[in-house]
Write a structure and sequence with these properties.
The complex is a heterodimer of chains A (about 120) and B (about 110).
Chain A lengths: L4 E3 L2 E4 L5 E6 L6 E7 L6 E7 L2 E5 L7 E4 L6 E5 L8 E8 L13 E2 L3 E5 L1
Parallel strand pairs in A: 2-11
Antiparallel strand pairs in A: 1-3, 3-8, 4-5, 4-9, 5-6, 7-8, 9-10, 9-11
Chain B lengths: L2 E3 L4 E5 L4 E3 L2 E3 L6 E7 L6 E7 L7 E2 L2 E6 L4 E6 L8 E8 L7 E2 L3 E6 L1
Classes of the chains: A mainly beta (about 120), B mainly beta (about 110).
Amino acid sequence: DTGVSQDPRHKITKRGQNVTFRCDPISEHNRLYWYRQTLGQGPEFLTYFQNEAQLEKSRLLSDRFSAERPKGSFSTLEIQRTEQGDSAMYLCASSLTSGGLFSSYNEQFFGPGTRLTVL
Amino acid sequence: AQTVTQSQPEMSVQEAETVTLSCTYDTSESDYYLFWYKQPPSRQMILVIRQEAYKQQNATENRFSVNFQKAAKSFSLKISDSQLGDAAMYFCAFYSGSARQLTFGSGTQLTVLP
């Protein structure tokens, strides 16, 4: 296993178009996270899944954003009607968590990200 | 809500010298974790070091060590014997069991001069 992978690495789109990104976590990792990172800033949490269940969503995740993890393996993040403000790096991370919701931290492994440019 | 502040947007260090990156945070939680992540240019983020808040002993990983001051809510990273490969953006991050998400600072761009 070579780590978390994301596809595509770069995406250029025109305002108003829909885009979809894919994340493949490390095998057997049950948690999957999406973050957004704008230029010169740290990543900001968007949402996370435990297996196929989406357990938390940030207020940053407007109704134009939707994330899925249908079989508890890979995940997709779709942005509808893209806006220029959506231009950012979208990072995916995964972890293996054995405990419950309030379990101790298990390291999140990050993918290389998808850089989105909205023209 | 937790906040993480990195007040040094850029730092530079001479190769083989020591540099300290600063981080402060704010939380009402008593049980949490703190991290330093490294993000090299065009490469993915990797964990450098972690500190559990309940541990009084500062974490050390080879040339990387932290100075964790819980009462002051301060968490600095010291890099000893700096190498050219240490050049990257460094992020301080916070995690608590109740939040279940990483909260990052704005980062410090470290340049290592040959």
